[in-house]
Amino acid sequence: IYFYDFNFKANYILDKKNRLFFSRYMGRDVVRIGRGSDAFKMSWGNSTITIRYNHLFSEKLFSNFTYVRSHYDYKLGTDEGVGAFKWISDLKDNSLKADMGYFISPQSNIKFGTMATLHQFEPGKVKGVGSETIFTEFNVPKSKAVDYAFYAAHDQKLFGLLTVNYGLRYSIFQ
Questions:
Q1: Which long-range contacts (C-beta less than 8 Å, at least 24 apart) are formed by 7-10?
Q2: What is the C-alpha separation between 154 and 139, in angstroms, rounded?
Q3: Are 136 and 126 in contact (CB under 8 A)?
Q4: Is 5 exposed, middle or buried (0-12, 13-18, 19+ CB in 10 A)?
Q5: Which of 52, 76, 104, 167 is the Cys-Cys partner for 108 at CB 3.0 to 4.6 Å?
Q6: DSSP label at 57?
Q7: How many whole angstroms separate alpha carbon 49 and alpha carbon 22?
């Protein structure tokens, strides 16, 4: 059994009103049950890349434009014997977001924006491994979907510690 996680973040100030942010994450977990060549192996991992551009239009209005790429996968299998196989599954997302914030006063601010995500699903590719295996190749069909959303929200500080947050979100999944 072993695992790792890696994080990296960087930001760059372009000027007083523009900033660029970059982050990267990678992680993987691996489990092996049994010994030798007939051991069952299982691993899963995720990696993401995020690039965000922040712009201040004024003291009251700002924006964030973000691109996110995410990739998750898992693998199962054994290397030898009549039951030797390898299973690979995969999910990839590519997202674009545009978020705006408007500060009406210290007690009131509005947020609004939109996003779109392309989902790519590969539920499973299975194939036998080695000359002794009883398994043949089988592929679960790949598919794609697109997810859109639009939102608006209002934060209103009424008094003391009481703040009300309300809004609307409209989502479409195809």
A1: none
A2: 47
A3: no
A4: exposed
A5: 104
A6: S
A7: 8
Residue whose tokens read 């995500």: 117
What's the N-to-C CA distance of the chain in angstroms? 39
Quick: pLDDT tens for 5-55: 999 999 999 999 999 999 999 999 999 998 877 788 999 999 999 999 999
Cα dihedral 28, 137, 77, 75, rounded to 10, equals 10
Please give the backbone phi and psi of residue 160, each rounded to the nearest 5 degrees, phi first.
Answer: 50, -120
Whether the predicted pLDDT of 160 surpasses 90: no
**CA geometry: angle 71, 74, 77, nearest 5 deg:** 155
Return the SS3 of 36: helix
d(CA 132, CA 75) in angstroms, rounded, equals 21
Distance, in Å, from the CA atom of 28 to the CA atom of 123, rounded to the nearest integer, reads 19
Extract the runs of DSSP E, i.e. beta strands, from the chain: 2-15, 18-33, 40-56, 61-78, 85-105, 108-128, 138-140, 143-159, 162-173
